[in-house]
Specification:
It is a single chain. The protein is of the alpha/beta class. It has one domain (7-242, 251-298): 3-Layer(aba) Sandwich (Rossmann fold). It has 13 helices and seven strands. The strands form two sheets. It has a five-stranded parallel β-sheet, sandwiched between helices. Strands 6-7 form a two-stranded antiparallel sheet. The longest helix has 21 residues, at 192-212. The chain is globular and about 55 Å long.
């Protein structure tokens, strides 16, 4: 089942436009776009990156002796499980979503009973079960590919591509000034030093894995998505063997147009003007410190003269 599982996983450093790109892809008639951040990681992930990034955002690891039920429960998937199990405390509570998590678990177990367990088969069953259990999913009847999004999962792109032969990874990068300005608005923001460490690591792995897998790892700039989403994401769709679509022009959730991307991310208005204005919220000292810490990637992504 995992060998014929067509899948696109989006990755991006925090506030880099991953959620925004996810929402622009949402209405495409050939795509089954996960409703929230996919967060497929488990507590069993344990490597050098585990101290840098939350385990929920990582590509999962499963115990060898677990049952399918235990595998399903191990997948963190926080945003979806909170929305289905305790909807009144979910930040997405005002958006209709008819999915029963227990039913999804049963469907997942049915898939695994046919295929057996492995990371690849578990992930294929997880995404398939989600869309089989999602009763008010706005179907076109033309869907051929699943789409997930998890922040920072680009660092695991090689594992995703190793496990799923039909998978692609899309990395989204945003200029570090706007990105840091937006992350600074969170209740418990990261320090500039720690944020830029994560930002530069994500760009390092995106460029490395694109060199290793040039046909399966793709990179887009949030600035280009904002300026012309149909052109930028339409070119991606063509590489994936999909058609372009006018739906790429607007951000949606389950095919319904959104007035703003929030609460799917801190970016509210995905326009070039708002993006530049966000970068200009920083002090001169912050702007120059970010330039110093991100210097090796500013020319690669054509950000040297952004601010």
């Amino acid at each position: 089942m995992s060998d014929d599982f067509r899948f696109l996983m989006i990755g991006a450093m925090y506030e880099n436009g991953g959620n925004t790109t996810h929402r622009f892809l949402d209405g495409h008639p050939q795509l089954m776009v996960y409703p929230f951040e996919s967060q497929p990681g488990t507590k069993y992930v344990n490597d050098m990156m585990s101290s840098l990034f939350p385990l929920k955002y990582r590509w999962p690891v499963f115990p060898l002796d677990a049952t399918p039920y235990q595998d399903y429960k191990a997948i963190i998937d926080e945003e979806c499980k909170v929305r289905t199990r305790t909807p009144n405390v979910s930040k997405f509570r005002n958006h209709p979503f008819d999915l029963n998590d227990d039913e999804r678990c049963r469907i997942y177990e049915q898939h695994i009973a046919k295929t057996g367990r492995s990371t690849a088969k578990n992930m294929a069953a997880f995404f398939r079960a989600t869309f089989e259990a999602w009763k008010d999913f706005n179907r076109s009847g033309k869907e051929v590919m699943y789409v997930g999004y998890s922040p920072i999962i680009t660092v695991d792109a090689d594992k995703i591509l190793r496990d799923l032969p039909q998978a692609h990874v899309l990395h989204v990068v945003r200029n570090p000034w706007s990105a840091f300005a937006d992350t600074s608005k969170r209740p418990m923001p990261m320090s500039l030093e720690n944020y830029l460490l994560g930002w530069t690591l994500n760009q390092h792995y995106a460029l490395l894995f694109r060199e290793m897998f040039p046909d399966r790892v793709h990179i887009v700039r949030t600035e280009d998505v904002m300026a012309d989403p149909k052109k930028t994401l339409g070119a991606l769709c063509e590489k994936l063997g999909l058609e372009s679509s006018d739906t790429l022009k607007k951000v949606t959730w389950n095919g319904r147009e959104l007035e703003q991307v929030y609460p799917w991310g801190t970016i509210r208005t995905p326009t070039p003007e708002a993006n530049l204005a966000t970068a200009k919220e920083l002090t001169t000292a912050q702007t120059e410190e970010i330039r110093r810490r991100a210097w090796q990637y500013l020319e690669v992504f054509d950000y040297k003269n952004f601010v």
